[in-house]
Design brief:
Layout: E1 5-7, H1 12-19, E2 24-27, H2 33-38, E3 46-49, E4 59-61, E5 67-70, H3 75-81, H4 86-93, H5 98-103, H6 106-112, H7 119-126, E6 129-132, E7 136-138, H8 139-142, E8 157-162, E9 167-174, E10 181-190, E11 193-199, E12 207-208, H9 210-218, H10 243-261
Parallel strand pairs: 1-3, 2-3
Antiparallel strand pairs: 4-5, 5-8, 6-7, 6-8, 9-10, 10-11, 11-12
Helix pairs in contact: 3-4
């Protein structure tokens, strides 16, 4: 580690002002940022903690029935409090270990957009809206590649709004040491169709499997996926699995998610 200044503002305006410094970095739960600092992969001179800002932590239901989750809400609170969206609660309850779930936040995960993180799959499959201090961003526009999002410098995620589906399920084939998704598939069925989002597999980060969406929108059964396969081109290849292996897992996990949701 190295010397830095830690700020703990108590309002959004104060946090935004502090983050206007080009040497400043927002700090949520720190489950990604702190290890990055320890490895000196990032060396900001000022950390701006978001945990003392009122009104951006907690879970509620909006008038339209969407589930609204504050950006600084820890995974553990989502796991126990998102009862209106069981698939999302189950996903949160299987992130990392108890220590990670007590500190890591949904906003931090979505802002970092790790290619193997779980929340991006939930947000994209749900057609969620990412709310910041400045605007609202549809999930389809928010995720822009590995570790890349539509967030501007100094922009803070204050809330994530999840339309609650008729049924949904998340299946994760996890890397046993980190418990990140080697491949994760989130399937959500809405009155106007089915959305399928995949994390952990692609070099471009989280993505929608549109062929599966079309098949499942016509017939929401695992059998509807027979004959479909995700292409191996562009999939991650590493010591944990080849691109072809990850592509195969996408099909397997999607079928499992549909069967569990049904």
């Amino acid at each position: 580690m190295y010397d830095f200044i830690l700020e703990r503002p108590t309002s959004l305006d104060a946090a935004v002002a502090l983050l206007s410094d080009e040497d400043a970095q927002a700090l949520g739960g720190g489950q990604t940022l702190i290890p990055t600092l320890k490895q000196r992969l990032a060396q900001p001179g000022r950390l701006v903690s978001l945990t003392a800002i009122p009104g951006i932590r907690g879970i509620c239901r909006a008038e339209d029935g969407a589930l609204c989750i504050g950006g600084t809400t820890p995974h553990g609170e989502v796991a126990t409090g998102a009862t209106a969206y069981p698939a999302l609660a189950d996903l949160a309850g299987n992130i990392g270990d108890p220590a990670v779930r007590s500190r890591g936040t949904i906003g931090g995960s979505l802002a970092n957009n790790d290619p193997s993180a779980c929340y991006p799959a939930a947000a994209l499959a749900s057609g969620a809206t990412i709310v910041t201090n400045d605007r609202q961003i549809a999930a389809d526009d928010y995720f822009q590649g590995m570790f890349t999002t539509a967030l501007e410098e100094g922009e803070i995620i204050t809330e994530v709004r999840f339309p609650v589906p008729e049924v949904a399920n998340y299946q994760k084939f996890e890397q046993p040491a980190s418990r990140f998704a080697l491949v994760g598939v989130f399937v959500a069925k809405y009155p106007d169709g089915v959305r399928v989002a995949v994390t952990g597999a692609s070099e471009e980060g989280v993505f929608r499997w549109t062929e599966a969406e079309a098949a499942l929108s016509a017939n929401f059964t695992a059998d509807a996926l027979d004959g479909l396969s995700a292409p191996a081109d562009g999939m991650i290849g590493d010591l944990h699995g080849t691109p072809a292996y990850r592509a195969h897992l996408i099909g397997v996990l999607t079928k499992r998610a549909v069967a569990a949701a049904s």
